Amino acid sequence: MITLQALALLRPAVSAGRATPSLLRAFAAAAADGPKTATPPPDTARGATADLADVFIPEPVDQVSLGKVQIMEPIFQDLGGKMCFSGQVSTVKCFENNPLVRKAFEQPGNGRVLVVDGGGSKRCALLGDNIAEMAHKNGWSGAIIYGCIRDSEDISEMPLGVKALGTYPLKSSKRDVGLADVPVTIAGVTVEPGDWVYADRDGVLVSKEELKL
Asked: Which residues form the signal peptide (predicted)?
């Protein structure tokens, strides 16, 4: 088979009309074949969202699909010390009030991820260092917050996954409790208690079932 290097050397001769018939046939065959690029198999060890997407979302991006695995819109910042995290979902729906966030993280996490629909408010923080430390000590894998956090420097050093819209130094109110373990819709995806989320620097996947490569 003619190599890409040889193909590059032959191109001027072909363009100038000086190539022999056999050379032309070789050039045409190589051009038709094109370069071969092998797709590497999924890396099961790292459990990355890209590998999961390759396996569980095989449809082309321009093909409408409402499969069991959805991808959140890329609106979150990575603010925790753990970039890759996953787990079964618990949810909180609140607005500028975080009592239920604290209450959730006071419970044993068992590797779960708390998904918080904070209404997208950037006027206060729904998570600070004290509650984040509690979450880590109680075995939570992470949190995805449709709102802001504070004490971000300390939280960035904790082995806890945290995605949020950004940071804000003002703490939230405590008057409106909110709702726990209800369906929430954030970043274009509806998440229900018991769903599974997979998050890393590339984004967030949501699935009705646990994903295994």
From this structure: 1-16
d(CA 195, CA 135): 19
Q: Average pLDDT over the chain, rounded to whole?
A: 87
Place of tokens 């998904």: 115
Q: Are 178 and 92 in contact (CB under 8 A)?
A: yes
| Tens-place pLDDT, residues 99-111 | 999 999 999 999 9
Q: Are the C-beta atoms of residues 102 and 190 closer than 8 Å to each other?
A: no
Q: Is 92 within 8 Å of 117 (Cβ atoms)?
A: yes
CA distance 92 to 182: 7
Strand boundaries in 3-78, DSSP class E: 69-71, 77-78
Average pLDDT on 154-170 reads 98
